[in-house]
Each structure stands twice: as structure tokens, then as C-alpha cells.
Amino acid sequence: MRTTLQQQIRRAALALALTCAANAQAAFTITTFTYPGSVATRGWQINDMLQVATTAELASGTPAFAGAVYQFSSGTFTTLPPFAPGVVASPVGINNAAVTTGAAPDEVTGEGPGFLFGAAYSTFNYPGAVFTSGRGVNLAGKVTGYWQAADDSVGGFIYDSIAHTYTDIVIPGAQFMIPHGINAAGTVSGSVILSPGSAFAGAPGGQYGFIRAATGALTLYRVNGLPTRSRGINDSGRVAGWLTDAPGSSKGFVINAPSGGGYVNV
What is the three-class DSSP state of 4? Predict the structure, then answer.
């Protein structure tokens, strides 16, 4: 059975931390927000104007989900218009022009395209895929995401929405990957499930974070050697994500993006 974005947001839990710097020591203020009428609200990515790409699971009715942009300064939501009859667009990434990206899968089949939404929708489909999901977008129109084919094979990509071309992200030993954040320099942050021995000789299998430089250089990493999921990256090269330090126990982190290629223990 395919794992769609809609299925992921039913299971995923993501805390949104808005960060301010105080000299050399960072202070964190946690702000919560709830989409009206929802039983679960997910904040996925935030831009410099404090606009948050948001998805919400609704308490009842049809559709069961809503996609929106939350404006932190006013505490208000702008709901994305219907993508198509019976199809909800789920925004995951947002850039500083308030252009969002995500997926618009059919509720029954789980199949559908990725999208960009500014003033109107535009769609993109990875060649040969039945499901395509955008995850992050920068001001240059470069989109990160992943695809699934009918045989359940998967892969990650960078989509150039101006040239309409795809660059594959290839990680040897990858069983599943999510390229997620992309900054102005074109550096990509994401996570990957690797087979044992793929990260380095004798490496355990499981979740790793990765950083892909605009040159294509790839760095795998774990924080404290623990299963790591890498998500957003800002223009300063700071990466947000979370790690699993015990069964059922997770901690968020903010780090400087590792580089140099190969594997790094942060």
C-alpha cells in the first residue's frame, strides 16, 4: 500500500519552534496554533515573514483535511482554494514570496501530482510516477520532493519549476527518502532510511539525515549517533529536525549543516 502525504500527516507530529537569537545563546519561544474545527494541526515550514505552511485534519465532514497558510503576526489562517472537486491540496513548503508546495492526492487512490500555489495552482509530475510530492521551495523556484511509482519504487528529486526539469537525488542503499528543505544557495536538507552498511562499513540501518550541496556533494549524518530526521534549512545553513533517543521518545534539534561528504556524527 502506498504511503501518501495524507497518511503521513495522520501519523506525524511536528512541533513548530520560532527562534530568536540573544547574543551567542539561542532562546526559544514555543507558539501553538490550531486551525478552526480541526483535531490535529501541523505546521510544516515557515518563511521570513513568519507565514507557515499548514495542514489540518478536520473533526468531521468532507473534506477531511484542509490546507492553509498561518500568519503568525495576525494569528489568522488563509485556506488554500480547492485543488479539484474532492481533492485537497496539502501545503508543506513555503518560500519568502508565500508560494507553497505540497501534494494533491486523490483520497481514494492516493495518487496525484505535486503542486505550486501562489496566485493559482500549477502542477508537476515526476516522469513515470503515480504520486509526486513537493516538500520545499526557494525563491528561485527550485522544489524538493519525492515520488512513488505504481510498483512502489520511490526516489527524491529537485524540480526546476522554471526550466521544468528534474535532478535526481541518489543515495546508495536508500530504501526511502524525503528531500525536504532547500535554501537560497540550493542546499537541500532531508532524511533517508538506509540499508545496513550503506552509510559506512558496519553502519546500522535506519534513519539518517542528509545534506546535499548545490554542487551535488552529499553528506550523511546522525545527531549523537541516533536515528535522525532532517527537515528545514535556512539561508544561514541552520538545520532543524528531530532524533529518536529511545522507543517512543523524540527530541528536536537545530544544528549547523554538516558538510564534507561521507558520514558525519554531529
Answer: coil
